[in-house]
Amino acid sequence: MSRRTRPSRFWETLAVVVVKPLSRLLVKRDWRHGERLPRTGGIIIAANHLSWTDPVLLSHFLFNNGRWPVILAKSALFRVPLLGRALTGLLVIPVERGSTEAARSLRISSQRLQDGCAILFYPEGTCTRDPALWPMVGKTGAARLALESGVQVIPIAHWGAHELLPYGEKRPRLFPRKTFRVSVGPPVDLSGYAGLPPQGDVLREATADIMAAITAQLAELRGEKAPEAPYDPAGR
Fold first, then answer.
1. Domain Phospholipid/glycerol acyltransferase spans what residues (predicted)?
2. What one-character DSSP code corresponds to residue 187?
3. Which of 79, 124, 216, 221 gives 20 to 30 Å between its CA and that of 34?
4. How far apart (Å, rounded) are the C-alpha atoms in residues 139 and 193?
């Protein structure tokens, strides 16, 4: 497997030419604590998920702060003509949801982390279903990768993408122009799990710590108090 941490010049230039002007056109920016992002080495970036637009807007933020985001996306998108080629060129990792191949994306992610990539994870696995749009209970993939690889987990919260394109809608709400707010938190302290087997309660507790760190950044952005416990769509 290639040890590239960024796409080829062609694909990177193409993405930048498309994404940066589009992002500037669609939203105003309120970006905070970009200096907390390590500029080199493998890291896991764990973020909340509000809208189909936030991967693009968040990628602009990460690129401007020195990191190329390696994103995970549904494998079905790779079967779309031209789009699949572009996703491969941009180092996007395919995810086979609900199949025995689902673990393959974690294996690829682990290799990319060793190569020094910045992997953008949405631990919730989908856009939040919390009625007030707070982060939900997370899935354990990001925590497993972090504990197995030893890389830092950098929590990022964002707010505003849902105003541009609410989840489930196909037509963006362009006016009035929205503000995309981002806040980077300090690395999540997972040192208490060192040496423990990455399974069961260990993964669930580490995941809860990651989600709590994301939620803390979101509370700062929103200027509101977060709920005591995260929304659990399985146990609502």
1. 43-161
2. P
3. 124
4. 17
Answering whether pTM is above 0.90, one says yes
21 prior amide bond cis, ω within 30: no
**CA-CA distance, 102 to 223, in Å (whole number)?**
37
Report how far residue 187's alpha carbon sits from residue 189's, in angstroms, rounded to the nearest whole number. 6
The domain segmentation of the chain, as residue ranges, is 28-222
CA angle centred on 27, ends 92 and 9, rounded to 5°: 35
Residue 147, helix vs strand vs coil: helix
Query: Which residues are CB-neighbours of 17 under 8 A, at least 6 positions away?
Result: none
Tokens encoding 17: 């030419």
Give the whole-angstrom CA distance, residue 84 versus residue 105.
16
Q: Which residues of 34-54 are buried (b: 16+ CB within 10 A; e: fewer)?
A: beebeeeebbbbbbbbbbbbb
User: What pLDDT does 2 receive?
Assistant: 47
pLDDT at 96: 82
What does the block give as tokens for 216?
Answer: 């803390």
Per-block mean pLDDT, blocks of 10 residues, the chain (236 long): 78 95 96 97 98 96 97 93 94 81 87 97 96 98 96 98 96 96 98 96 98 98 97 86
Computed on alpha carbons and rounded to an integer, the radius of gyration of the chain in Å comes to 17
Token digits for 189?
């302290």
Alpha-carbon distance of 19 to 59, in angstroms, equals 8
CA atoms within 13 Å, Cβ hemisphere of 123: 36
* Nearest by Cα to 156 from 55, 233, 88, 235: 55
For residue 1, the model assigns a pLDDT of: 38
